[in-house]
Every structure is written in structure tokens, then in C-alpha cells.
From TrEMBL:
Residues 57-325 form the G-protein coupled receptors family 1 profile domain. Keywords: G-protein coupled receptor, Membrane, Receptor, Transducer, Transmembrane, Transmembrane helix. It is found in: Membrane. It comes from Capitella teleta (Polychaete worm). Pfam families: 7tm_1. PROSITE patterns: G_PROTEIN_RECEP_F1_1, G_PROTEIN_RECEP_F1_2. This is G-protein coupled receptors family 1 profile domain-containing protein.
Length: 384
């Protein structure tokens, strides 16, 4: 059936009991469903709460990393990652919990922008994580090349390149869909859903772009790179700790190698969590594609519930970095405390000035005016 944007009437079937199934089995991008209690709990409460906290955490992370003046340039990529994660979480708020807070028709129209934004920020997050890992790998395993490959200017260019590539790759998503309102014959029920526009409703776009390239560029290639580099970083940490065990703990307690190992361990932890949280989504995507193309029941479990768990894991992945920074980053904690302390002192000083009683302000003003008059008269006497 060729779907168009606008209002579409479903032909009346012989048996009205199958009308709902007929309307929902049409290859929608986003189709409404009878949400289970599990799905509502996860998408509305868990994802909503974690996303809000994650946005706050990523804003604080970007602020603290920027305030680290000694390592601001080396931490530039982590700042970009925090901003990309923040945008992803904002888009996730519009994608998951919002559906339970507004009407279906308005929600579907918002998805025309929210869903492409979600995928765009996801692409930027994934490849920024790859870039951060490559940066650390080159610094640890090939330090002489690091000075040439990752300079202040090159880091900015790499980050800009990932942003531009992520936007260009996901640009078709902003134009490939529209909203159709399906009118069911039994009970005249109206269902709004996203469908492909006619220009994009073809096999090449669906299979090549939305499935093959998606799996390849967002999961197969980046996750393979991350896994390989992570293993090499772990081996480098173990080798470095064996070589410098005595000097680190005895003669040179502040040896720079200790800091390098801590920074590498810090990144390895982030990458491991990233791999765990991002690995479920491509598996579900691949299995659902096989079901739709082969017509074979691959997943015997509830597909929507597993997809909900996958969405939760990806939201957790974009929210957890701040927690890792606080737990493992001693320098991060110190700068964070200084930031809060400075903000508290500034706020307290401002409130103190604003709450000075009027009775105390008037004598001060009178004294100031008296002083000005006295000096003014003295100046007049001198001039005369």
C-alpha cells in the first residue's frame, strides 16, 4: 500500500476485529501502541528522570572541564562529548516521556524533528567517543606522533569534521517522513503515524541507508575500533604499571606515569560502559530487519520491551559520564568543589548587598554626601 501524507481511510474489512491489526501493520516509522506498564514506567519515569539529571550532569561536566586551565585543550574532545550527550538527552526527552504528556497528534508532529535530532546527536556522540579513544591511544602508545596528530588546531578540526559529517549523514531523516492520519473503518478511530514520503519509500533508501549504512557506520565500525583500542590501552596500562611499580610507590611518588595511567584507566572505564550500553540496539535493529525482510519470526520475546530497555541503556550511557568523572577524577572533584564554592560565595555576597536594611543605607548615604560637600567646600576655598 502506498501511503501519502494527510488523511487516509482504511478499506472496511469483512471482520472489524482485525481492523486495528490492519492499521498498524503498514510499515510505519513510528506507530502508536498499547503501552504496557513496564514501558510506561521506563520511558516516562526512568528515562525522563535520568535524562533530566544527565543534562544537568553534562552541563556541569562541560563547565568543569573548561575551567581546567592547565589541560583545557587536551580535554576539548571530552567537552564536545559532554555537549553532544546533552543534546542527545534533550532529544530523548522529546522522544520517550513526552508521548505520555501530550496528545498523540501533536507528539507525532514533534517527532518529525525530535527523532532526526536524536539520531544526529547519537552519531556525533559515537564518533566523538571514537576520536577521544584514538587521541588517548596515540598519546599512550605513540607519544611522538601525538604532538603532530593532535594539536590544538587539529582537535578542533576533528571535532568540527565529526559534527559536519554527523549532520550531513542524518540530513535525509529530516525530510524522509511525514504524518498520516489513518481512519479506521470500525468505530471511525483516527490514528496518527509517521510514514515515508513517496520519494523515500523505495527499497534502496530503506535497505541501504536506514539499515546497512546505519549498522555499519554507527555500530560495526566504531564499536570494533573502540573494542580494539580499548584492549591495547589495557595492555599498555598493565605494562606501564609493571615497569614503574617501584619508582611510583617509593622514589617518585608523583611520577607523571601515575597520572597517565589514571587518565587512561578513566577513559577505559568510559569506553567499557559505552560498549555495554550501545551493544543491544544494533542487535535488535538487525533482528527486526531480518523479520521484516524474510518474514520469519526471529524474536520470540516482546520486541517493544527489549527496545525500551535498549533506549534506557543509551540514555544511561549519555548520562553516566559525570558520575565517572566525580568517582575517578580527583582533579575533577577539586575543580567542581571550587566552582560550587565560588558560586556560593558570589550568590551570598550578592544577597547580602541586596538585603542591607534601609536604615543602615541612609546614614551611609548621608555620610557620603557630607564628605562630598566638605571636599567640595575645601576645593572652593582653594580656588578662591
Amino acid at each position: 500500500m502506498d501511503f501519502r501524507c494527510g488523511r487516509i481511510s482504511i478499506p472496511e474489512p469483512d471482520n472489524c476485529s482485525g481492523a486495528d491489526n490492519l492499521s498498524l501493520n503498514t510499515g510505519f516509522i513510528v506507530a502508536p501502541d498499547d503501552s504496557s506498564a513496564f514501558k510506561v514506567s521506563v520511558e516516562l519515569y526512568l528515562i525522563g528522570t535520568i535524562s533530566l539529571l544527565g543534562v544537568l550532569g553534562n552541563c556541569l561536566s562541560a563547565l568543569v572541564l573548561r575551567r581546567d586551565r592547565e589541560r583545557r585543550e587536551s580535554l576539548l574532545l571530552l567537552q564536545v562529548l559532554a555537549l553532544a550527550d546533552g543534546v542527545y538527552l534533550v532529544a530523548a526527552l522529546f522522544k520517550y516521556p513526552l508521548k505520555y504528556l501530550i496528545n498523540e497528534y501533536a507528539y507525532q508532529h514533534i517527532q518529525l524533528g525530535a527523532f532526526p535530532l536524536l539520531k544526529t546527536s547519537q552519531t556525533i556522540c559515537i564518533w566523538t567517543m571514537v576520536l577521544v579513544t584514538i587521541d588517548r591511544y596515540v598519546y599512550v602508545c605513540h607519544p611522538l606522533r601525538a604532538q603532530r596528530l593532535f594539536t590544538r588546531r587539529s582537535r578542533r578540526l576533528w571535532a568540527l569534521g565529526i559534527f559536519v559529517a554527523g549532520v550531513l549523514y542524518n540530513l535525509p531523516r529530516f525530510f524522509d517522513s511525514c504524518i498520516s492520519t489513518f481512519i479506521l473503518p470500525c468505530g471511525r478511530k483516527h490514528i496518527a503515524a509517521m510514514v515515508y514520503r513517496t520519494a523515500f519509500a523505495n527499497t534502496v533508501y530503506y535497505i541501504l541507508y536506514r539499515h546497512a549504512l546505519y549498522i555499519l557506520l554507527l555500530y560495526a565500525v566504531p564499536l570494533t575500533i573502540l573494542a580494539c583500542l580499548n584492549c591495547r590501552l589495557v595492555r599498555a596500562i598493565r605494562r606501564s604499571r609493571k615497569q614503574h611499580a617501584h619508582c611510583v610507590h617509593t622514589a617518585y611518588p608523583h611520577d607523571p606515569t601515575t597520572h597517565d595511567n589514571n587518565a587512561t584507566t578513566f577513559l577505559v572505564t568510559i569506553v567499557v560502559i559505552f560498549l555495554i550500553c550501545e551493544s543491544l540496539e544494533p542487535v535488535i535493529h538487525l533482528l527486526s530487519f531480518m523479520e521484516s525482510q524474510l518474514g520469519v519470526r526471529v524474536m520470540s520475546f516482546n520486541y517493544m520491551n527489549i527496545y525500551t530497555v535498549s533506549a534506557l541503556l543509551m540514555v544511561v550511557n549519555s548520562s553516566v559520564n559525570f558520575v565517572i568523572y566525580v568517582v575517578l577524577g580527583q582533579r575533577f572533584r577539586r575543580i567542581l568543589k571550587e566552582t560550587f564554592k565560588q558560586s556560593f560565595l558570589t550568590t551570598t555576597s550578592f544577597l547580602t548587598r541586596e538585603t542591607v536594611p534601609l536604615q543602615q543605607q541612609q546614614p551611609l548615604q548621608q555620610h557620603k554626601q557630607h564628605t562630598q560637600d566638605k571636599h567640595g567646600r575645601c576645593l572652593e576655598d582653594q580656588l578662591m
